[in-house]
Amino acid sequence: KKANRCAFEGCNARVVKIIGDCRYCQQKFCGTHRLPETHICPNLATCKQASFEKNSNKLLNEKCVKLKV
User: Fold this and answer.
1) CA nearest 27: which of 13, 38, 39, 12?
2) Structural domains in the chain, sorted by start
3) Nearest alpha-carbon partner for 44 in 23, 58, 29
4) How far apart (Å, rounded) are the C-alpha atoms in residues 18 and 27?
5) String of DSSP letters for 4-49
6) Neighbour-count burial of 29, counting CB atoms closer than 10 A to its CB (0-12 exposed, 13-18 middle, 19+ buried)
7) What CA–CA distance (Å, rounded) separates 29 from 38?
8) Which residues, other chains included, contact 13 with Cβ-Cβ below 8 Å and sequence gap of 6+?
């Protein structure tokens, strides 16, 4: 069965349930190739942009504002 194998070309390892599913390209990967960077995800730019915006919003919400007396 090819369905239970990693989608990375040349890898025949078994797919890791839940954490092996890439939310950006919708393919299934083994533990070694589960991260977008390691399986050369075609939607890596989208992934990086989403992470950047999430981090940026978090930092802006935690920004200290000087009180004017």
Assistant:
1) 39
2) 1-69 (4.10.1110)
3) 23
4) 11
5) TB--STT--PBPPTTTTB-TTT--B--SSS-STTTTT-TTHHHHHH
6) buried
7) 10
8) 5, 6, 30, 31, 32, 33
Whether this model's pTM surpasses 0.85? no
**Cα–Cα distance between 46 and 20 in angstroms, integer?**
18
- The model's pLDDT over 9-56, given as tens digits with 9 standing for 90+, comes to 999 999 998 889 998 899 999 999 999 989 999 988 888 898 899 999
Give me the pLDDT at residue 2, please. 61
More confident residue, 42 or 66: 42
Q: How many CB atoms are closer than 10 A to CB 22?
A: 20
User: Would you state the structure tokens that stand for residue 69, as one six-digit string?
Assistant: 């007396």
Quote the CA–CA distance of 11 and 30 in Å, as a whole number: 8
